[in-house]
Amino acid sequence: MKIGVLGNSSKIKTVESMQEIVRFLQDCGHETVVFSSDKEIDDVDVVLVLGGDGAILHAAVVAAQKNIKIVGINYGNLGFLTEYEKDEREQVKELLSALEKGTCRIVKRSLLQLTIKNKTYYALNEISVQRDYGLLSTESTQILRLQVEAKEGVDVIAGDGLLICTPTGSTAYSLSAGGAILTPEVPVIMMTPICAFSMRARPIVFSDTDEFKITINKGKSMVLADGKVIAALPEGEEMTIKKADFTADFPVKENSDFFARVRNKLNG
């Protein structure tokens, strides 16, 4: 197989660590390419990401669009999306062997597609629409009022904003905001209000065939995809969100256990 290696420079402390991984893969018989940024990911079967969940998020969006599988090795703190810890190199060898033989289970994680003013963005975790705290404009917004349209009807959410998240994103920002934990491949999208101004505003789970139209009814907003600010929208602007037509494919080890991961990683 042809394997790309992408290392988070803030996590991989020495060049020797990267070289060791490359030599290890080459000794296993794999052709290896080193990427210096997620934008370079291309023309490989698998990309091995060395870092934490942030590195995985950025790499996964690029890899998913090119039908490249993603395997993460945790060099960060939480590592919820990484399949291995940095001292589990031999287990990585077993996974790649199973993948080459076609016997490896692959978890297909959905992504979100966001369209604003004819520009398209993608997110593995969530799209967040939040009130502008004065970071992007001269005045902060006290309450953000958002109109949400889906095939089930129309609602207005007032407060700090809302999240539209994938099952993968259910264990991230949405969980902190009171959302449910969803298993990775369940075909749904969840809407989670952020500090809503009404007690009736609660997380709602929709079919992943739904499409959402969100309009800024009141206030100035920041729009973020996987934590990165991509737009500042004033009153009257709108956006659409739906499931992307491709998935991020994560090969998983034979004994992969979602419940154990939730117990071990989210207990801090």
Describe what this molecule looks like in 3D.
With 268 residues, the protein is α+β, with helices and mostly antiparallel strands. It contains five helices and 16 strands. The two termini are 37 Å apart.
List keywords for this structure.
268 residues, 11-stranded antiparallel β-sheet, 5-stranded parallel β-sheet
Topology:
Blueprint: E1 2-7, H1 15-27, E2 31-35, E3 46-51, H2 53-65, E4 69-74, E5 84-85, H3 89-101, E6 105-116, E7 119-123, E8 126-131, E9 144-150, E10 153-165, H4 173-176, E11 188-196, E12 204-207, E13 212-218, E14 221-225, E15 228-233, E16 238-252, H5 258-265
Parallel strand pairs: 1-2, 1-3, 3-4, 4-5
Antiparallel strand pairs: 6-7, 6-16, 8-10, 8-14, 9-10, 9-13, 10-11, 11-12, 13-16, 14-15
Quick summary:
Helices cover 19% and strands 43% of the residues. It has helices spanning 15-27, 53-65, 89-101, 173-176, 258-265, and strands spanning 2-7, 31-35, 46-51, 69-74, 84-85, 105-116, 119-123, 126-131, 144-150, 153-165, 188-196, 204-207, 212-218, 221-225, 228-233, 238-252.
